[in-house]
Write a structure and sequence with these properties.
heterodimer, B: 3-stranded antiparallel β-sheet
Chain lengths: ~280, ~140
């Protein structure tokens, strides 16, 4: 009788121990309900936090909005331009990496491999070759195997590694130019495809006003010598011209005419950087 | 993972702590990567006092699905991540979650983007024993 009573006393403890043992290491629950609306005008945030999307993020959305996109027509040949100054190498590198994302969409393995080699070459001029070598070799291998998701991931890592090492070398301006020109080349390809077969929901992907505000503040923070470089100056002025074109009109759309103009401006800027 | 820990969108006071927090965020993101999401290399991180929210403006594209995962290495901390559009309307799916384990905490929010534009990611330390709690945030898209 005593033993039975003792067993009954310890039963809840035993049950608790069993339940605890069966519980997973972490417990996932729904977040506490957030407010449905907030006053965004009261939010304090800095442009420093803005992340510039890689072209594949935008291309992924474009692919979902329609098929029959002729990506092959958007892949640019790999130029052999010889840049002179670090900022020019950085701008060139940004466009070449972005061209890699376009070549992935076109599933053009040969071009992807050429781009991989060109990235290694340009990275050498910026003293960031060591950081990109592994990624570029992975890009070349993955393209040979048709692993396009792998190539996309390595291109993103390449850009990230280049920027990380440049930041470490106190080459902040060059780091930002890699991202800006990557965005430029991606926007050129996007606007070209939308221009060839205009649809308002495709054009909406160009609606990125905060990006241009971010670029503007980045240019303002660059060294005077970099700001005065004619290629950088052209880039800055060109991006300023795009600003009013990517705003949604009263009908909530970006017009076909605006898309055409965006494509003209971005094509001209890319041609200057990477002829 | 080593590469992704390198490029943080803003510099935090204690680099090692932010890297640890990003490791937690990446751990939380793992299941979505296995489900076909593409991880972006750019990340955010920093530290915050309890109750203070930080807003990060971020561009999202119509048609893409996104997961944002936040992590902290602070024991017994509770963190949250929520996503609002430029008008201040909550846009995340009702799949957002929060999780705690012995050595850290996580939170996640999913967005099925229906309009291209600027969004606000609101990160917050809901509870913590520390004066300032480190956090890291990563995102992926599909």
């Amino acid at each position: 009788m005593m033993m039975t009573r003792l067993r009954l006393m310890f039963l809840p403890v035993l049950l608790c121990a069993v339940v605890l043992a069966l519980l997973p290491a972490s417990v996932t629950v729904a977040q506490s309900p957030p407010p449905r609306n907030i006053d965004v005008s009261k939010l304090a945030h800095s442009e420093q936090d803005v992340v510039i999307p890689v072209p594949s993020e935008i291309f992924n959305a474009l692919d979902k909005l329609g098929n029959n996109l002729n990506w092959a027509s958007e892949v640019a040949p790999v130029s052999k331009k010889r840049a002179k100054k670090p900022e020019e190498f950085a701008m060139l590198l940004g466009t070449v990496i972005a061209n890699g994302f376009v070549a992935v969409e076109a599933k053009d393995a040969t071009r992807v491999q050429d781009i991989g080699h060109r990235v290694i070459e340009l990275a050498g001029a910026l003293n960031v070759q060591k950081a990109v070598l592994t990624h570029c070799n992975a890009i070349i291998d993955a393209s040979k195997n048709g692993d396009w998701a792998g190539v996309r991931a390595e291109l993103d890592r390449t850009q990230s590694s280049v920027r990380q090492v440049l930041e470490g070398q106190k080459s902040h301006d060059e780091s930002e130019l890699v991202s800006i020109t990557g965005w430029l080349r991606g926007t050129q390809a996007l606007s070209s495809l939308v221009n060839k077969d205009y649809k308002p929901d495709r054009a909406e992907l160009l609606h990125q006003p905060d990006m241009l505000n971010t670029f503007d503040s980045q240019f303002k923070g660059m060294k005077e010598s970099v700001q005065n470089n004619p290629e950088v100056r052209d880039l800055r002025e060109g991006l300023q011209k795009i600003k009013p074109l990517i705003i949604l009109g009263p009908d909530g759309q970006i017009s076909a005419k605006s898309v055409e103009q965006i494509n003209q401006i971005t094509s001209s800027l890319v041609k200057t950087i990477d002829p | 993972m080593v590469a992704i820990l390198g490029l943080c969108a803003f510099v935090a006071p204690a680099r090692a702590t932010v890297d640890d927090c990003l490791s937690f965020a990446l751990e939380a993101m793992d299941k979505y990567i296995k489900n076909g999401y593409t991880l972006r290399e750019d990340t955010w991180g920093g530290d915050l006092p309890v109750g203070e929210a930080k807003a990060i403006s971020h561009q999202l594209f119509k048609g893409n699905n996104y997961w944002f995962c936040m992590g902290t290495d602070s024991k017994a901390a509770k963190i949250s991540i929520h996503v609002y559009d430029s008008d201040g309307t909550l846009v995340e799916e009702n799949t957002s979650w929060q999780s705690e384990k012995a050595d850290g905490s996580f939170a996640g929010a999913e967005v099925k983007c229906k309009r291209t534009g600027t969004y606000f990611l609101i990160v917050k330390i809901e509870a913590s024993k520390e004066e300032r709690t480190g956090w890291g945030l990563v995102y992926s898209y599909k």
